[in-house]
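Write out a record, focusing on structure:
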Amino acid sequence: MTTPAITHRFVDLIPEQLEEGILYICIQYQTVSHLCLCGCGNEVVSPLHPQQWSLTFDGTAVSLAPSIGNWSFPCQSHYWIKRNQVHWAKGFTAEQVNKLRTRDQRLLEDHFEAQSSKGDILSDVPWWRRWWKRVTKWVQRDRGEAG
């Protein structure tokens, strides 16, 4: 685990080549990107969204919440970014990761479903995503997995 601190850079677009130790923040596209802070070189993308990540900027430093868990990377690094400081966290077991992913997916789906029932964001969700969600629910129901 190599990076104890980072710098941040507000950008109009995320650059194709990221530099180590820099958190790129694109407000227009509500995205934060950086190279994994363990030094493995994988690109980490964190969508800014109420059910995913939030960014705090105090005029000097940034914080990103919740933690970054790179479970899909070989390094499986896990860390917090608080006031431009990297705080390493413990690793998770495969079972913990699966539970977390299931919970996060459910929260995100519930959020979009609640918003679309209000008519607020239905047009922002691509037709194919709405279609895929319905297909997935049908398959889960047929398998007895839906809850």
